[in-house]
Amino acid sequence: LIVALNKMDTANWAEARYNEMVKETSSFIKKVGFNPKTVPFVPISGFNGDNMIDKSDKCPWYKGWHKETATAKVTGFTLLEAIDAIEPPKRATDKPLRLPLQDVYKIGGIGTVPVGRVETGIIKPGMVVTFAPANVTTEVKSVEMHHQQLSEGLPGDNVGFNVKNVSVKDIRRGNVAGDSKNDPPAGAASFKAQVIVFNHPGQISNGYAPVLDCHTAHIACKFAAITDKIVRRTNNPTE
Hints:
- With about 240 residues, the chain is mostly beta strands.
- It has helices at about 15-30, 80-85, and strands at about 5, 40-45, 65-70, 75, 100-105, 110-115, 130, 135-145, 150, 160-165, 175-180, 210-215, 215-220, 230, 235.
- It has three domains: about 5-85, Rossmann fold, CATH 3.40.50; about 100-180, Elongation Factor Tu (Ef-tu), domain 3, CATH 2.40.30; about 190-239, Translation factors (Elongation Factor Tu (Ef-tu), domain 3, Beta Barrel), CATH 2.40.30.
- Helix content is about 10%, strand content about 30%.
- The strands form five sheets. Strands 5-6-10-8-7-11 form a six-stranded antiparallel β-barrel.
- A hairpin with a 4-residue loop joins strand 14 and strand 15 (about 235).
- The two termini are about 30 Å apart.
- GO terms for molecular function: GTP binding; GTPase activity; translation elongation factor activity.
- This is Elongation factor 1-alpha.
């Protein structure tokens, strides 16, 4: 998380106003689960470009932002430096393969090519994959990204992969591909989920039947039983 305090030019770059906003925002983000010590606060003017890319001379009182990470303390001045200081997430290459299909194409001279983004695990040519819930198993002949052949597809990669002896009618958008030898995905009759309600005109109760969008799947479901209400700040159930 980065907090950019915009329109500082309309407050004449007043240090008191900056400190007030840092105090208020720190209190708010703490309530929703963030540690203010890990968050850089950057006073900027987006319209004039102050402290966006280059350090501004309009706030001599500003000594730069600082944040604590798991390994070190990081400092900087501009919003760009704060963005560059974001630690990239660890890709889940050690988990079983999960690749939700975005679409399935039939390409002349090649065959059936499912496409999607690798969420976890690794996909490689020669791997035997299973598509759930269609329960179709086949071998991956090749993996491509941006028309380039890959030796493997990693989490975050949007890939297309050619499969053997599978028709475009056998699999479809919303299916999930996984390694048939390492915890392959399977269909589920029910599951337990934590749901955040942003805005709803009516009342949500047992039997409520929404349409669920999960990755690329779009399917109707039903709330069989609401077990708890959860306090967002602590993630603990209340009732």
